[in-house]
Amino acid sequence: MKTFDELYLELAGKWRERTPGSGSVDALDKGIHHIGKKLLEEAAETWMAAEHEGTERVAEELSQLLYWSQLVMISVGLTPHDVYSRL
Ligand SMILES: N=c1c2ncn([C@@H]3O[C@H](COP(=O)(O)OP(=O)(O)OP(=O)(O)O)[C@@H](O)[C@H]3O)c2ncn1[C@@H]1O[C@H](COP(=O)(O)O)[C@@H](O)[C@H]1O
């Protein structure tokens, strides 16, 4: 289990270190167009899971949506605080 902040620190660290084998580094290298498409895909899958598949699947898809949202953040240089301050 990881909190949103813990995951962000992990991903930002991997990006900074360009950790070999990191799928996150690969996705960030592909750029915001690739990341945006995945974000949209996971948002849609979250919606479909909520309509048709039950809470376990919704939790799984939401975890992926949060992950891809963090790659958007890192891609454009935002921190969690930048987002929290607007909630
Ligand atoms: N939480 C995630 C996470 N969620 C989703 N993904 C990626 O996003 C992909 C899911 O989208 P895909 O649709 O391609 O794969 P899928 O299995 O069909 O999933 P669905 O679309 O069907 O839901 C997975 O294959 C992962 O590559 C994630 N990759 C990493 N993390 C976390 O990020 C950390 C760092 O990962 P690396 O950068 O790869 O080291 C990991 O330890 C995890 O905690």
Shape: globular
Terminal residue distance: 23 Å
Classify the helix fraction into a percent range.
over 70%
Question: Low-confidence parts lasting 5 or more residues at pLDDT below 50?
Answer: none
Radius of gyration using CA atoms only: 13 Å
- Please identify which CATH superfamily of one domain we are dealing with: MazG-like
User: Bound small molecules, which ones?
Assistant: phosphoribosyl ATP
- CATH architecture assignment of one domain: Orthogonal Bundle
Name of the top-level CATH class of one domain: Mainly Alpha
Could you say which structural class the secondary elements and strand pairing correspond to? mainly alpha
Number of distinct beta strands: 0
Count of DSSP-assigned helices? 5
The overall pLDDT, averaged over residues, is 98
Major sheet characteristics: none
Beta percentage is under 5%
CATH topology of one domain: Helix Hairpins
The secondary-structure element order is HHHHH
GO molecular function: ATP binding; phosphoribosyl-ATP diphosphatase activity
Catalytic activity: 1-(5-phospho-beta-D-ribosyl)-ATP + H2O = 1-(5-phospho-beta-D-ribosyl)-5'-AMP + diphosphate + H(+)
GO biological process, one term: L-histidine biosynthetic process
EC number: 3.6.1.31
